[in-house]
Write a structure and sequence with these properties.
Length: about 60
């Protein structure tokens, strides 16, 4: 099943997403939501529990850029 949204957990703080990455994700038909990893995990769990087709990529909260 194709995912409708990719939740990107950026670590402890929200980081800007490169236009290239944003364009690539959109080209797959998914929406991209970039938030801090704690909120990304919570959002993923809620959407998954609702049965929504969702994917997540999470960086540990201790990671900084």
């Amino acid at each position: 099943q194709l995912k409708e949204i990719l939740i990107l957990g950026c670590g402890r703080h929200i980081q800007p997403i490169s236009p290239e990455l944003h364009k690539f994700i959109q080209s797959t038909g998914m929406k991209l939501e970039a938030v801090d990893s704690r909120n990304a995990a919570s959002t993923y769990n809620i959407l998954n529990e609702e049965g929504r087709p969702v994917a997540a990529a999470l960086l540990p909260c201790g990671v900084t850029s």
